[in-house]
Amino acid sequence: MEVSPESVLCGGGILPFFIDDGAPCFILGKEKYTPSWRGGSSKWSAFEGGRKGNETPEQNAVREFMEESIESLVHGAHTRVLEQELLRRDYALRITIQMQTHAHVLPRSHVTYVKQFRCNRAVVDAFTRRRAFLLEADATCKTHREARAQVAPCYPFHMAGDVIWRDNCRYMVERVLDVAEIERAGSGDSVWLRVSLQLASPYHCVTVCASHQMGERGRAYLRWFRHQVRIDALIVDAHRMHIEHALHIRRTGECMVHAHVKPDYVEKSEVRVWTLAELSSVVASGGGYDGHVFRPYFMPVLEQTVKAFSGEYEGTRDVITEADLACAQRGQINVP
């Protein structure tokens, strides 16, 4: 479904809810603390964000929802299914907020879909576990990058993608199979490393093992390899938890050479289930409730949602309203 031809799509998202004992319960996320982000830091909103490229409203909304919820409600493999549901108008409410930027420029539109999901309050624990996992993975990836930067490639301390010559034949290192400390007869108190490499040439593959005295280069190489093994395990865990989309992985052949957590997946610091009565209090107070603060940009969406679920829009599923962008940027929202 296209936005109004008199406006330009700038963002979108999804406000999920489920029914608990006959009453709607809404799931919102709290933005992580960002000192430079005055309008959104540590504030509550739906799972939404800016448009990327030529995304349709449905694509924009689904991508932001999947990222910011860390796929706690819907598995990433169902992205296309969710987009099709929105296209079929399988939602409770579609709220389009139009914001005028300049007098002679088309207004910007932000589209939020209020949609029911088959879930319950356990989604809070699921999100918490997934975010904790991603933060651990992110820290491990950072340490891995630092360890990798300290390695000075020289035989046998090679990594996937390196080219070496052996018996007058050119090989590429496909994988570092193992790095282990060993005892070597007659070496005294010195420590040695045994490095096992899988090599490939245009004609055949070989596995070579080489020993080298530890030294500073060996210690740096061993640290890197241990982090490499840990990240490989984290990637397996991410697939098991169905959040592999949160990781950006660069490979040489089948071997991971770089990984990091996509920032969009850890934008929300926590999620919470809100009742209609609680959100009504948020609207009545102008954006606050029991110490919680809501994003100014989200308040027009929240106000229209509360009105709809309170019976004011019976039979209406598409709502268009206007917001003063200048007021939103100052933290004050005016909604007719």
Q: In what range is the share of β-strand residues? A: 25-35%
Spell the H/E element sequence: EEEEHHEEHEEEEHEEEHEEHEH
CATH topology of the largest domain: Nucleoside Triphosphate Pyrophosphohydrolase
Instruction: Tell me how many strands there are.
Output: 16
Q: What is the CA-atom radius of gyration, in angstroms? A: 26 Å
Query: What top-tier CATH class of the largest domain fits best?
Result: Alpha Beta
For this structure, what is the CATH homologous superfamily of the largest domain? Answer: Nucleoside Triphosphate Pyrophosphohydrolase
**What spatial form do the alpha-carbon principal axes imply?**
elongated
Give the N-to-C terminal Cα separation. Answer: 25 Å
Question: Which residues form runs of ≥5 with pLDDT under 50?
Answer: 324-336
Number of helices: 7
Q: Biggest sheet, open or closed, and with what strands and sense?
A: 8 strands, mixed
| Mean pLDDT across residues | 86
Helicity, in percent?
25-40%
The tally of structural domains comes to 2
| Level-2 CATH architecture of the largest domain | Alpha-Beta Complex
The SS-based structural class is alpha+beta
